[in-house]
Amino acid sequence: MTQWLVCHFIKDYQNTSDQSVRQRYGRLGGIVGICCNVVLCLLKLLAGLLTSSISIMADAFNNLSDAGSSIITLVGFKMAGRPADDEHPFGHGRIEYVSGLIISLIIMLMGFELLKSSFEKILHPEELSFRWLSVGILIFSILLKLWMSFFNRKLGKQIDSAAMKATAADSLSDVVATSAVVVGTLVFYFFQINIDGWIGVVVAFFILFAGLGTARDTMNDLLGQAPDAGFVQAVENHVISYPEIIGIHDLIVHNYGPGRCIISLHAEVPCDIDILKIHDVIDNIERDLNRTFQCEAVIHMDPIVTDDETANAMYDQIKGLVSMIDPMLTIHDFRMVEGPTHTNLIFDVVVPHQFRLADREVLDEINRAVKAIDPTYETVINVDKSYTI
Question: pLDDT tens digits, residue range 212-246?
């Protein structure tokens, strides 16, 4: 069913890197969500009125909030697809993350309201009535919500959308919540035990848990989380596949929304290579990265001495010393400048975030290890941080 809807309502649906195609995916997901949730809300309101059940009524209003979330998703995709302007030169793609955060806040708000009304039902229970029609409506809701979860998850994966993944998680929590309502209704029918308020509490906690999870995921995107390790490795492999490139470091992926990112990195090249030739190679790599990963790329060249045996041997020795301090530490941009009274060892050391030692302590450890080799060695070290996992 999902694939049929995608094929029939999304033109050029396989070209998910195109922003207009992404907007069509978002539009389809939003419209389907609005229609399904409005229908479920009306049906559950009917079931709730027939049975005087607070848990069914709460579930109905939960569907109404889901319809509102779908509208936010629809608007979010529309706004995220707006082109760049003077005030937002990198586009408006992060609005999609904001819409996902708004959805999660609405989910949590509904959870708190349901928790409050459920406690009131526990303290002041009301007489319930049983209707098989209501049970049928709830079972239909479970099946439809289960399909909606798969539907939104599939669309979210195809276009890497945080908002649609959040909607999928919400639909799955609704399945659990409505299942709990069915259990409470059947317990009342077979055992004449009113656990309607307690079931409402269970439903509320499921809704709150789903809201917190989606808020965490969207906040990570807004705050700027580390890029996917597989993507980073693919970029590294692509760059070093060029024979002129010795190695790379300081790779940063700047995320401005799904399908909008900029890659910056330092490429190590032989210092004696023709400058015009290597400039041409770097230009080709930048264009190639753009075509392959749909990302703008900016590459800085770092010239490396490759034919100085003394410097190369010292580099290997220093790299080993740094690794002995901690295997997580790495070095790059190594230079050895000899003078009449001392020799400067100049390099960058990459220290992970939240490392067990402070940056100053790392520098002191390295300096002591270098001095143990030769007291005339002086270190000039710049501390780098890794922006990838």
Answer: 877 887 788 778 777 888 888 999 999 999 999 99
CA distance to 193, 226, 321, 365, per residue, from 326 (Å): 62, 22, 9, 10
Q: Are 32 and 82 in contact (CB under 8 A)?
A: no
What global pTM score does this model have?
0.64
Q: Which two tokens stand for residue 252?
A: 């940063």
What's the CA gap between 216 and 319, in Å, rounded?
38
**Based on C-alpha coordinates, what's the Rg of the chain?**
29
Alpha carbon distance 265, 159 (integer Å)? 26
- Report pLDDT for 65: 72
How is residue 197 written in tokens?
């308020």
Distance CA 100, CA 79 (A): 13
pLDDT of residue 323: 93
Strand locations in the chain (E): 247-255, 261-270, 296-304, 330-338, 343-350, 377-384
Cα→Cα distances 139→51, 54, 57, 60, 293, Å: 16, 17, 15, 13, 44
- 321-330: list long-range contacts, CB under 8 Å, 24+ apart: 321/366, 321/369, 321/370, 321/373, 322/349, 322/366, 322/369, 324/369, 325/362, 325/365, 325/366, 325/369, 326/355, 326/356, 326/357, 328/352, 328/355, 329/362
Q: Tokens 């220093």 identify what position?
A: 318
Model pLDDT, residue 284: 95
Which pLDDT belongs to residue 158?
A: 83
Which residues of the chain, if any, have pLDDT below 70? 17, 19, 54-55, 73, 126-128, 162, 258-259, 389
CA dist 343 and 252 (Å) reads 32
